Amino acid sequence: RERVLSGVQPTGQATLGNYLGAFRQWRTQQEHYDAIFLIVDQHAITVEHSPVALREGTLQMAALLFAIGIDPQRSTVVVQSHVAQHAQLAWLMECTATYGELSRMIQFKEKSKGSAMVRASLFTYPALMAADILLYQTDLVPVGEDQIQHIELTRTVATRFNHAYGEVFVIPRAVIPSVAARVMDLSHPEAKMSKSSSDRQGNIYLLDSDDQIRRKIAKAKTDLFNEVRYVEDDPERAGVRNLLEILAALNDREPKEVASEFQRYGDLKEATADAVVAHLGPIRERYHTLLADRTQLEAWLAIGRERANATASVTLSRAYDAIGYLAPK
Ligand code: TYM
Questions:
Q1: Active-site residue numbers?
Q2: Is 61 within any annotated ligand binding site?
Q3: Which atom of ligand 1 lies nearest, measured to the CA of 9?
Q4: 55, 86, 139, 158: which sits with the fewest CB atoms below 10 Å from its CB?
C-alpha cells in the first residue's frame, strides 16, 4: 500500500482552510492508504510561542483530528517531538538543502517580514519538513496549495541525497484538493484564511458556534457585479469565488455548477452558511467529548508514537549509513 503523510501545526485555532485544504482529504485517504498524520510541535516553535499554549494546543489538535474522523486504529497520529528521528534526520536535510533554496521559500519571507527577532529555525524549517516526509518513505502528501513549494523542495533534496549517497528515500508527491485548495479570508479575500492571522472576522474556526459562522459568512466581502458567477483569476471577484468554492467543496460539486443555481449573493451566503454549519456542528460536539477524556487521547498518541518509531528508526539508520556516519558499537 502507498503511504500518505501530512502534518498540522498545533498553534492557534484550526480554520475552515485547514479543513478543506487538508483534514478532509486525510479522512478519505486513510481508507485507501497507509496514513500518518503529524502534529508538528517542533514547527510551532519557529515563531514566538507560549509553552503552556503549545502543550494544550497539541492535545487539542489531537482531539480535533479524531473528532474530524481520523481513526486512531487505522491511521497513525503522532506528535512530532515524540519521535526523535525527525530532528535527527532534519540535520541531514540541512546538510543537503542549500542556503539559496531555503532563501526562496515564500513562507519564510512572509513570516519573517517586519520581525526583529526571526528565529534561525524559521529559516531552516523546510529541512525539518522534508525530514518529516522522507522519514516514512512517503508517496503522497495531501496539503493545501500553500505547502506545495515546501514539497517541491523536499523532492529536490531527496533526489540530491539519493544521487549523492545512494537510494535511501522515496520521492514524494503533493496532492491538493481540486476545489478549495486555497480558502481565502472572508473579509479580505485577496489573502488566505490563516490561523495565525489577527482578523478573526475573516476566519471561520472549526470550533466557532453556529451563530458565529452565520454572522461571519453574512458579512463576507463580495463585489458590485451583482451576479453569481464563478470566474477564475479575477481579483475583483475573489470574495464570491471563495464562497462558491467553500460551498462546492463541502457538497463535493463543481463551483461553476453551484454558481448556476443562485442569483443573489444573499442566497449564496445562506446556502454556504448552512453547509458549513451542517459540517462543523457534529465535529465540534465530538471534539468536546474527546477532549474530556485526556487519558484516552494520550493512549492513542502513545500507540501512534510506537508505530511511527518503528518506521522512522529504519529510515534513519539507512540515511546515517549512507551519509558516512560511523555506527556506534
Ligand atoms: P499548517 O499547520 O499551516 O496547515 C495545515 C494544513 O492546512 C492547509 N491550509 C489550507 N488549505 C487551504 N486553504 C487555506 N487557507 C489553508 N490554510 C492552511 C495547509 O496547506 C496544510 O496542508 N508546514 C505545514 C505542516 C507540516 C507538514 C509536514 C505538512 C509539517 N511537516 C509534512 C505535510 C507534510 C504547515 O505549517 O501546515
A1: 111, 192, 195
A2: no
A3: 2
A4: 55
* Nearest Cα residue to 133 out of 51, 234, 43, 23: 43
Residues across the chain: 329
Buried b (16+ CB within 10 A) or exposed e, 21-47: bbbbbbbebbeebbbbbbbbbbbbbbb
- Burial grade of 121 (CB within 10 A; 0-12, 13-18, 19 or more): middle
Q: Which atom of ligand 1 is nearest to the CA of 145?
A: 20
Q: What is the pLDDT of residue 33?
A: 98
Asked whether the predicted pLDDT for residue 146 surpasses 90, the reply is: yes
Three cell numbers, residue 77: 497520529
pLDDT by residue (tens digit) across 191-245? 999 887 767 899 999 999 999 999 999 999 999 999 999 999 999 999 999 999 9
**ipTM, two decimals:** 0.99
Is 10 part of any known ligand binding site? yes
